[in-house]
Amino acid sequence: MSQIILPGTTATGQQTTLGVMGGGQLGRMFVQAAQAMGYFTAVLDPDPASPAGLVSHFHVQTDYLDEQGLAQLMQRCAAITTEFENVPAPALYTLGAHCPVAPGASAVAVAQDRIKEKAHFERCGVPVAPYAVIAATEHLAAIVGADLFPGILKTARLGYDGKGQIRVNTCAELAAAWDALRQVPCVLEKMLPLAAECSVIVARGWNGDMVHFFPQLNLHRDGILAVTQVFEGNMTSATVERSVAAAKSIADDLQYVGVLCVEFFVLQDGSLVVNEMAPRPHNSGHYTLDACDVSQFDLQVRTLTGLPLVPPRQHSPAIMLNLLGDLWFDADGRPITPAWSEVLGLPGTHLHLYGKLQARKGRKMGHLNITGADVEAVRATAQRAAGLLGIPAF
Ligand code: ADP
Ligand code: MG
Q1: 318: helix, coil or strand?
Q2: Which of 220, 308, 366, 382 would you call most buried, defined as having the most Cβ atoms within 10 angstroms of its Cβ?
Q3: 199: which DSSP letter?
Q4: pLDDT of 76-129, one tens digit each?
Q5: Whose CA is nearest to atom 9 of ligand 1?
Q6: CA of 222 to the centre of ligand 1 (A)
């Protein structure tokens, strides 16, 4: 892309509009960042009550592959991004033939498929967990003696928040698990002894410029991100250096344009293994909304439009608590309203709710960012907020 797409009204009196495929919370926060800068926004999502659709200037309510819907989006938009990795790659190819699309369809296609994704990581020289592809019955027999047990069988496509995964200890369990996953292409990954999990978010522009945020330390519960902690000293300097270098090489090698999050395992011996990547802003980067001078969503806007990428500066230690639908129910399963007023009475708490109309267990309803003068203060406030909301201590 050669021309910068500037915000505001064009010389011919048109409002410059940015589009996003997908209307979830990530799309909503992209839309809000774009609007703050003076862009109009358009969202394509079939759900009339989608979190992003509810706050966007335009909302195309069709399926992701609907030709008319895609045509409407292209007509309106100067450039288009995506907010979840399962947007069908063919839709992005269609859009990309007519207007700037970032990230591009080919990069998204790699992130959509664990088999392609692992091959890409290996090509970049970044270690992955020992694994084998299970895509045909004969692959099951080849596992014998491969030292992949205990392992996790993961579907190659469409898994998220721990869905599409089964833990297996023996060849017999593996065969049964593959049946349970309907024999779709999978990877069997060896279970590794994790000391911690972390992620790195980079933003790479059309011209190859790249900036990154400080690595996030992530706690998952039941396969879903629960808590992210970001401050100097949250992990060893070796882990910081290696994870940032790995994320940058993964983005560069893909000629990636946009915001990319790479997730890592830190093993008990201190070594680093890459887990997966998300071709978009990431749940572990939500703290950037309140703790940094540019957020991951601001950088998504800048990468898409060709605006300059400035290195983000984190001005406060930060902890993010994910607010899952579980918090909307008491111990007996009766609906309740979480203690927002008490939580917002604590200094340095920033509430973000996504406007989802119905709470369900495990559903991401919002997040709470906690900032403060020092790590101890932030941690103390975060634990108190967690206690008020019924989130287990961390
Ligand atoms: P998802 O796409 O659902 O996020 P992940 O592959 O990231 O799936 O797995 C979810 C979580 O399961 C990880 O964050 C980690 O806690 C755990 N996990 C996944 N793979 C392994 C592994 N090979 N060894 C140990 N823990 C793992
Ligand atoms: Mg994951």
Answers
A1: strand
A2: 382
A3: E
A4: 999 999 998 789 989 999 999 999 999 999 999 999 999 999 999 999 999 999
A5: 162
A6: 10
